[in-house]
Queue: 3 jobs
Job 1
Amino acid sequence: MRHDSEENCLACDLTSGVRPLPGGRVYETSAWVVEPCIGPLPVGTLIVKPFRHCLSISDLQPDEADQLGPLLSLTSHAITELTNCDQVYVCLWSHAEWTPSHIHFVLQPAWNSQQDAHERPGPFMQETMFRSGEPPNDDEVATFCERARALLSSIEEERK
Ligand SMILES: [Zn+2]
């Protein structure tokens, strides 16, 4: 089974406003949108996904593919600057309940100091966070998104 339709697509609903998105849209290009993550990952975690309901990286259109690398780099730069993290994890699964769904990269800040609370980094730490199921604080997400919007638009201005 594949989520071929935009109907009942969480990613589409969050972008269109059908479902509320705490913190709001952070950035966009003509093909991609950057939004805060609504799952139980640290404040500063952002989602990068195509506006178009697209289920696989292999289905990206040329303009979508062209914009992807620079946008992942730019967004990671902003996360690093604003959270003072040691690494930004960039991952894409989009296979909830074994069903291909609207692709979305998760860009998650990670700090070396997290080793005090987590035995292993990377997907192991993510798994622990998902198990805990604690969503990030809405106010903190909103504050981060405001700062991220300001930083990304100032970088955009500089590059003009
Ligand atoms: Zn969708």
Job 2
Amino acid sequence: MSIWNPWRGCHKKSDGCLNCYIHRADARKGINTDEICKLDRFNLPIEKDHKGNYKVKSGQLVYLCFNSDFLIEEADEWRGDAWQIMRERSDLTFLFLTKRIERFMVGLPEDFENWNEHIVVCCTIENQEKADERLKIFRTLPIKHKMITIQPMLEKIDLTPYLDENIECVVVGGESGKDVRPLDYEWVLDVRRQCVDSNVSFEFRQLGSTFIKDHKQYQIKRQDLCKQAKKADIDFRSTLKK
Ligand code: SF4
């Protein structure tokens, strides 16, 4: 596993961004998250050692843009080069999340459809409004590997119109930190049921720091968020081979 951040910074875009961990972490360090900057290690996946071998070893999963949004407007001038780097490293798998799926086609290489087998795009939603807005667009895009991320989940969501055979997995989780919005386990189970009915893989990634189960509210410690989700043992693996 590897992380590649070709640029940093982001603007809050929708309700799900309210307690964005990047903004919170930057604020502690006195960094202005709204300033979008290209980073020194822009070429990380194609950097080579003194023997001429790639430093990022073949076969790895590369998390892309985890302190920005890959599709943010200010990066339009750099994204073409980032796509070319991904095209060159077809021996890696690249994965990014975005709340700006409506911008996916901006600057996309014309022949993208021919070489995106190693790229996974996660469309992020948080409520029904954003599900309807973003997933309608997501389903039309020429992406081979599509996932839906609902983190933080802010309300009960009906995903059924969007759970077709092109969606490989739905990931659900709550919000972490102080004074965050609650995640109701009923919403999680409801999305799981939709996934099972549509034979789409489902993963419960993490509880929220404020978590509701059977109408009771709990405060969950950060170190237990993922552990407790795994303990719930409700992940579902689709029988479709993807
Ligand atoms: S889009 Fe993502 S990175 Fe950007 S502000 Fe929202 S939550 Fe943070």
Job 3
Amino acid sequence: MANIALVTGASSGIGREFVRQLAKRPEVEEIWALARNEEKLAMLVDENPEKPIRTFSVDVSDNAQVAAFFETVEAEAPTILWMANNAGWGKFCRCDELSPEESLSMIATNAGGVVNMAVRALPYMKAGSKLINTGSASAFQPLPYVGLYGATKAFVRSYSRAMNKEVKRQGITVTCMCPYWVGTNFFDAVHEHPGNAVVTKYEVMYKPEDVVRRAIRDAGRGKDMSVYGAVNRFQHVAAKLLPQRLVMWIFLKKQGLK
Ligand SMILES: NC(=O)c1ccc[n+]([C@@H]2O[C@H](COP(=O)([O-])OP(=O)(O)OC[C@H]3O[C@@H](n4cnc5c(N)ncnc54)[C@H](OP(=O)(O)O)[C@@H]3O)[C@@H](O)[C@H]2O)c1
């Protein structure tokens, strides 16, 4: 019964960095890394010689695949000390440029996948276990042309903070990390509807290693939110103080959109 760190969205960007940093922690004996792309997952093994890395090709938006993965978890009964519930994607465009199928798939990954993985993982956590759900700064307010993505992340933020209170008695903490823009492959897909490229101005692009280091530190301190970066913290506060209509207006102005 190994003490493990479980990371979803592990094949790239923020998740890959979670694997790298969690593999260095002495209490973690194995990393279990999930994503869809097996070739990219396989690279994690060479990249992280410190600890055994087990890779699982799982689409977190597919309940049957998630359930099958948890049959392995049940058979081996590891203790999940750390979990980065991080798989997700977004597209930036008008709501009707996303097909209903794409829209539902985004919700199924970013919201449904987070819930499914979290609820199924909880029985394998113990006092001191840390669950980090990946939200986003887009959760702080509605953002036109990032609307559906931001709504899924607002769901994750709200769900995570409530969940943190619910599992407190078990000594488990839930932290919603809310990154601002981070330099990853995330941006390869956001403009798949290039006829109408919107939201193209990114005033700051943080590094995955800094965002993840902060999230692990905040989770270690039992915080229910992790907001890395001065610009991000400013936006977090501004979104609380200003009317949301004004925040949306400023965002559209910055992006040169109406
Ligand atoms: N980059 C940013 O600016 C930013 C800002 C705020 C929040 N975030 C959030 O951070 C998380 C990680 O994103 P990233 O920036 O690291 O982007 P990324 O480099 O594109 O990584 C996304 C990861 O999620 C996995 N994934 C996507 N859909 C999946 C599915 N249905 N099932 C299983 N795995 C899936 C991908 O692997 P496969 O394709 O192999 O499955 C990949 O490992 C996401 O939740 C994203 O919304 C990113």
